[in-house]
Amino acid sequence: MKKISRLGHQARLGWTLVAPALSVIALIAIFPLGWTFWESLHLHELRMPWLGKPFIGLANYIEIAKDPRFWAALGHTAFFTVVSISLELVIGLYLALVMNRVFRGRGFVRAAVLVPWAIPTVVAALLWRFIFESQGGIANALLVRAGILKEPMVWFIEASTAWVPVILSDVWKTTPFVALLLLAGLQNIDLSLYEAAAVDGANAWWQLRHITLPLLKPAILVTLIFRTLDGFRVFDLIYVLTGGGPGTSTEPVALYTFNALLQNLRFGYGSALSVVIFAITFGLAMFYVRGLGVKLGGEE
Amino acid sequence: MSAPITDRSGARPVKKPRTSGVRWQTWLLGAALVALMLFTLFPFYWAIVASLTSDAALFRDPSLWPQHLIFDHYRALFTERDFITPIRNSLVVAGTTTIFCLIVGTLAAYALARIEFRGKAAIMGFILAVTMFPQISIVSPLYLLLRSLHLIDTYPGLIMPYMTFAMPLTVWVLTGSIRQIPKDLEEAAHVDGATRFQSFTKILLPLAVPSLATTGILTFIYCWNEFLFALSFTLGPERQTVPVAIALFRGQYQVPWGEILAAAVVATAPVAAMVLVFQRRIVQGLTAGAVKG
Amino acid sequence: MARIALEHVDKIYPNGYVAARDLSLEANDGELLVLVGPSGSGKSTVLRLMAGLERVSDGVIRIGDRDVTDLPPQQRDIAMVFQNYALYPHMTVRQNLGFGLSIRKQAPAVIATRVAAIAASLGLEALLDRKPAQLSGGQRQRVALGRAIVREPLAFLFDEPLSNLDAQLRVETRVELARLHRKLGATMVYVTHDQSEALTLGDRIAVLKEGVLQQIATPMELYNHPANKFVAGFIGSPAMNFIEGVIQRSEGPSGRMGMCTFKGIDLTLDVPCDGESHGRVFLGVRPQHIEVTADGENRPKGEVGVVEPMGNEQIVYVTLTGGDRLVAVAPPQETIRPGDIVSIRVKPEGVHIFDAESGSRIEPSPYAIER
Question: What is the pTM (predicted TM-score) of this model?
Answer without folding.
Answer: 0.76
